[in-house]
Specification:
Blueprint (H helix, E strand, L loop, with lengths): L1 H4 L11 E4 L3 H9 L3 E4 L5 H10 L8 E4 L4 E3 L1 H12 L4 E4 L2 E5 L4 E5 L4 E8 H6 L13 H12 L5 E4 L9 E5 L7 H8 L2 E4 L2 H6 L3 H9 L6
Parallel strand pairs: 1-2, 5-9, 6-10
Antiparallel strand pairs: 3-8, 4-10, 5-8, 6-7, 7-11
Length: 223
């Protein structure tokens, strides 16, 4: 969260809202990083996500960007989302994503996977859906369920994907750990377009991130 706290873009005002499920632990982490905090049960996951999106209702925001605590998006990615929004799109996602397997210290690309991380939803679309951006009671496969939900509840919508992300310098990284819903191997089985990359690539894209994640991943007695 500290990474996004320090992110600034000309002409853009960020409203940063985190949703957590660990009480004071989550709240303290969010507030120390300069985020507003909302508490919600962790399950079902789609209901937790809706608590987050509902927190933006009435705030005067033009759009909502959805990022998990294990997702990192660089400046070029934000610039691309904002440009697509200004072009009139209501639902904007990235076709390509990087995976970082924290336990194995390995880095991967996944192409044409229609990532849910980093998705932007315009206020126009959010208002049509009453700021509930997911169907209720869903625990897995939220990305596909959300796309179907948009089509069912908010026709017509202007939806697009940002293509050739790596060639544009866009870096969206999903960090995989033991508690991730889907492993890199799961994604390879489902999508089939997952390829290994030198882990040094992550250091070039997000300097210092790998070291920070490694420290967080250590048992407390080893820190």
């Amino acid at each position: 969260m500290q990474y996004y706290r320090d992110l600034e873009l000309p002409g853009v005002e960020f409203v940063r809202i985190a949703v957590g499920s660990e009480g004071d632990v989550s709240r303290l982490n969010a507030e120390m990083s300069g985020w507003e905090y909302v508490e919600a049960d962790n399950s079902p996951l789609s209901d937790k996500m809706n608590v987050a999106s509902l927190a933006f209702k009435g705030r005067g925001c033009d759009a909502i960007i959805i990022l998990g605590s294990d997702d990192f998006l660089n400046r070029a990615g934000f610039d691309a989302l904002i440009q697509k929004y200004r072009d009139g799109w209501d639902s904007i996602g990235f076709e390509d994503i990087y995976y970082y397997d924290l336990n194995r210290d390995k880095f991967f690309t996944c192409t044409r996977c229609a990532a849910g991380a980093g998705h932007m939803v315009s206020a126009t679309l959010a208002e049509q859906l009453g700021y509930n951006l997911w169907p209720s009671g869903i625990e897995r496969r939220l990305d596909g369920q959300q796309r179907n939900y948009f089509i069912e509840k908010a026709r017509p919508i202007r939806s697009t994907w940002i293509k050739d992300c790596f060639d544009q310098g866009i870096a969206l990284v999903d960090v995989k750990t033991d508690v991730s819903m889907w492993s890199v191997e799961d994604m390879e089985l489902m999508i089939g377009r997952v390829n290994s990359e030198p882990v040094d690539t992550l250091d070039e894209l997000f300097p210092g991130l790998r070291g920070m994640l490694s420290l967080i991943n250590q048992p407390v007695e080893e820190r």
